[in-house]
Design a protein that fits this description.
There is one protein chain. The protein is an all-beta fold. The protein contains no helices and 11 strands. The strands form 2 sheets. Strands 2, 4, 5, 6, 9, 10 and 11 form a 7-stranded mixed sheet that branches. A 4-stranded antiparallel sheet has the order 1-3-8-7, with no helix packed on it.
């Protein structure tokens, strides 16, 4: 079983930065692709960014150049650095882990990010 615990959300102004963290517990971190998703009110959950164990990354077009995903295998933690935040980035941000072998997915409980304009 995998447990994911997000932290770092909050209320910021447009143009500010935030860093989200997701602590991974319970299995071997290097066996999982780690992703960040978000869900705004009235909208579907969408992929924001993901990173493989080998540090390959993928981003939604809407955040390219502003957000950066990273992972620390020593700390079993994945990060999402969010810069130049916009009001449309307001959402609940979820951490996700996908097992490379089985494709089993695990989700965190989410952390709220609110950007005031």
């Amino acid at each position: 079983q995998v447990e994911l615990a997000e932290s770092g959300g909050g209320l910021v102004q447009a143009g500010d930065s935030l860093r989200l963290s997701c602590a991974f517990l319970g299995r071997t971190f290097s066996e999982f692709i780690m992703g960040w998703y978000r869900q705004a009110p009235g909208k579907e959950r969408e992929l924001v960014a993901r990173i493989t164990p080998g540090y390959s990354t993928d981003y939604a077009d809407s955040v390219k150049g502003r957000f950066s995903v990273s992972r620390d295998h020593a700390k079993n933690t994945v990060y999402l650095q969010m810069n130049s935040l916009k009001a449309e980035d307001t959402a609940v941000y979820y951490c996700q882990a996908t097992n490379l072998a089985s494709s089993t997915m695990y989700w965190g409980q989410g952390t709220q990010v609110t950007v005031s304009s």
